[in-house]
Specification:
The protein is α/β, with parallel strands linked by helices. The protein is built from four helices and 24 strands. It starts with a helix and ends with a strand.
Length: 401
Amino acid sequence: MVLVVSLVLLSVMLVIAFSAIMMTSTDLKMTGHFRSNKKAFYFAEAGLEEAKARMRVGAANPIADNHPTQTSWAAYIGSENKAQQKGYNSGNAMHIRVSSDQADMGYVVRIVHQTDGAGGILYWGDANKNGVNERTTSYGPAMRNIYLVSSEGTYAGSSRVIEAEIAKLPPVNVPAALSVNASTTVKGSSTHIIGTDACGGNDLPGISSSNSPGSIILSGDPNIEGVGVPAIAYNGTVIDVQNLINTYKKTANFTYTVSNATHTASTTPGPGDNWGTPTAGATSQSPSSCSVRNIVYYNTGGTGIQLSGGVSGCGMLLVEGDLKLSGNFSWYGPIITTGSLSILGGGNKNITGGILSGGSTTNAEDAIGGNTNIVYCSQAMNSQTDSMSIQILSWMDKSSQ
């Protein structure tokens, strides 16, 4: 009996031990699979980030898209063998392949132009010039391609695929050299508002107003040039200026929180931080030039900021509140203010680019005069966002589908 009981107990113990070994082995396999699956996912994310970095203008190892209107264009990141598995054809002039900057990570990336259901290429930008970026099939200098990026990461037999839509940040797409949503007075024969593109692009009206005729008051024979006779467009689309500022202020490299302040060229913090100095043109009505790209953002808490005494800058000037410019003033790029716009006083003022004024103001109307020159330049508008980070418009883990 003792022998029988001992054998039974030994058998039970052997079964338990075997089960424990099997469970441990299964757990180790599951842990190993989870780990390799996670690593494959991180590799796929790394591939997406490399695509974003290399599609940006000014990247160290850029991927150039020289065919923005061609559906057959495609770019690949990875080895030739892996790229071929994703459709790469070295004999196709529309295909580009580059080796990965991180060859020790197992991923391959395919980048193509995103299209709509009818096969039309989709672009990202403000096509109707209302201050809101959207998907559109209309191509133009202020539109940016939407790219569909598929990144597959592999590790130890595991594979994960991430798919994302990315796009470069579009430039500010203005309807005129000066765009206003409030009644505006333009004063003096020394004031020039020029919508004719000084940089060789498409000509615009000198002034665009979202209000009816009569809301732009001309006093003292100012010069308004551009498309139309007179070069003033009325009843335009109301521009969502606040949305534009919300879009671009996230990447501001100069941010100030003030209330009814006055900043001069020597104010620190302020213009004294060196925002850049445009190179003046041949005359006050000629476009300036500048290779510096800054984003200067003022949060005035609904009050305003006055820039005076020789202030200059290059890039985007974003103001939440009222904006007053006086004295010598020079700017290259777009100026956007949610409130009223006042450009008066002595000194010479040259703004090369374009201005948007929201018109939700504490003052009765906008007023412009006093040796002011607003010169529309498409290059000054379109180049400001080129080197900014790529946006992710949508993201999906395709391996879980």
